[in-house]
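Researcher: Re-running this chain for the archive, since the previous output was lost when a drive failed. Same request as before.
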Amino acid sequence: MPELPEVETVRRTLAELLPGKTIERVTVRLPRLIRKPADPKAFAAALAGRTFRGAERRGKFLRLLLDDLVLVSHLRMEGRYGLYRAGEPEEKHTHVVFHFTDGTELRYRDVRQFGTMHLFAPGEEWHSDPLRKLGLEPLSDEFTPRAFRAALAGRAGKIKPLLLDQEIVAGLGNIYADEALHLAGIHPERSAKSLKPRELERLHRAIVETLRAAVEAGGSSVRSYVNGQGEMGMFQHRLRAYGRTGQPCPQCGAAIVKITVGGRGTHLCPVCQKPPRGAAVPARKRKDRMHAVKRRILGAEADA
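Model: Regenerated structure tokens:
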């Protein structure tokens, strides 16, 4: 699923391509993608004649701004927007097409068919689903260490599932939660209440640093993600933990392992991210920790 960096990259692309384009008509081929209004014909009629003015983002949602309407779009698993010339061959699984008066088309393609589109009067979207319950925006000024601590205060759950809860922090998904936890040196099974203030500050900093770096790299193309111009992201080449099972940790050299936390595949370093007190450590993890300790001792002796 595209996470904050991928959606932000799409937003930046659409913010360059769409402003000033006027919709002549809209073709909806998969009605269930349209959630508000429920009638796809009413959706298309409301958009006809409207001009795009900009593109913004909230968490993993796109906010496409028109004259007097806001289109809130979620890409879900594999949703993708692309701008084309009218008459160009359409890719399979193209479900919604915005036909512009200048002879171009904005096409929405979704192989998994899980995406959603909601149409609102300006301002209405903040008080309605799906945006009204979203948590802190991690690349905004409101995402301070204090606000992050307050959002987690009193929660006894494991930190990884809490980071994936969009009502706590909006935009984080499996990739960047793993990356931030690895960078912060925090095991994903640690309970939120067990984290000390300095650990929470370290995790806050890791979330911001990871997301900013991923946005600068255009996101991570680990599956089918491309931006609105068909370009791949490059952050997958800088991943520290996610998807690197069996590969060396960039910090200590121990092999990255994959476990399941909260029903999600989770990648971590068994040495840098110490498990919660009392948790069982599999033999492979114990062996990796011993090897890492030996490497550190040998390295220290070599420097002496």
